[in-house]
């Protein structure tokens, strides 16, 4: 595919290997104190959504690419260390727990990420490495921890409103929409 920086999703004229054919991407990050490195939000996932803002499928988009292990496809790759640091599971701190989480994220979301189709990147795990590598890059681009910290919003036990958090995130990343998932009065997940 011949991709340009001006390729626009949802235009109907762009190669699906250049920009996601579903149109939109949701970056989901989670706050896992005690499980994750200090001073970081970890990845829950990178979720392709349709141009109208809905999920393309709750079961994935390509049953032929449902893998039983992601760890085996990425363990020798440059992204592996970042995955075991920034894409962890709240269900356990062992590789098996992480792998089960990665298998789920790949099966439901990665198979719907058109730029990682084997026709675009090849096979032998290149599709998996493309999806997870791109998701890690998006997480790094949108450093929510720093955006909040720069606005004086710190994980120090203080209470902050979601409107203050949204203002801080949007000051750093104009135009980004922000949604929150909470447990009680605690924000534990943010969707951009």
TrEMBL record:
Annotated GO biological process = RNA catabolic process
**Cellular component annotations (GO), alphabetically ordered:** extracellular region
Coiled-coil portions: none
Q: Which GO terms describe its molecular function?
A: ribonuclease T2 activity; RNA binding
Return the Pfam families for the record.
Answer: Ribonuclease_T2
Q: Which family does it belong to?
A: Belongs to the RNase T2 family.
Protein name (database record): Ribonuclease T2
């Amino acid at each position: 595919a011949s991709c340009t920086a001006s390729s626009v999703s949802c235009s109907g004229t762009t190669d699906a290997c250049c920009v996601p054919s579903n149109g939109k991407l949701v970056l989901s990050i989670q706050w896992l104190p005690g499980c994750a490195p200090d001073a970081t939000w970890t990845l829950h996932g990178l979720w392709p959504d349709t141009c109208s803002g809905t999920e393309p499928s709750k079961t994935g988009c390509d049953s032929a690419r449902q893998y039983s292990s992601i760890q085996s496809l990425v363990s020798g790759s440059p992204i592996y260390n970042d995955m075991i640091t920034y894409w962890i599971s709240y269900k356990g701190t062992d590789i098996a727990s992480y792998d089960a989480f990665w298998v789920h994220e790949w099966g439901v979301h990665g198979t719907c990420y058109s730029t990682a189709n084997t026709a675009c990147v090849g096979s032998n795990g290149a599709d998996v490495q493309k999806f997870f590598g791109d998701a890690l890059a998006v997480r790094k681009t949108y450093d929510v921890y720093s955006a909040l910290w720069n606005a004086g919003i710190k994980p120090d036990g203080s209470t902050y409103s979601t409107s203050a958090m949204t203002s801080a995130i949007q000051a750093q990343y104009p135009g980004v929409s922000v949604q929150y998932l909470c447990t009680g009065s605690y924000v534990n997940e943010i969707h951009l």
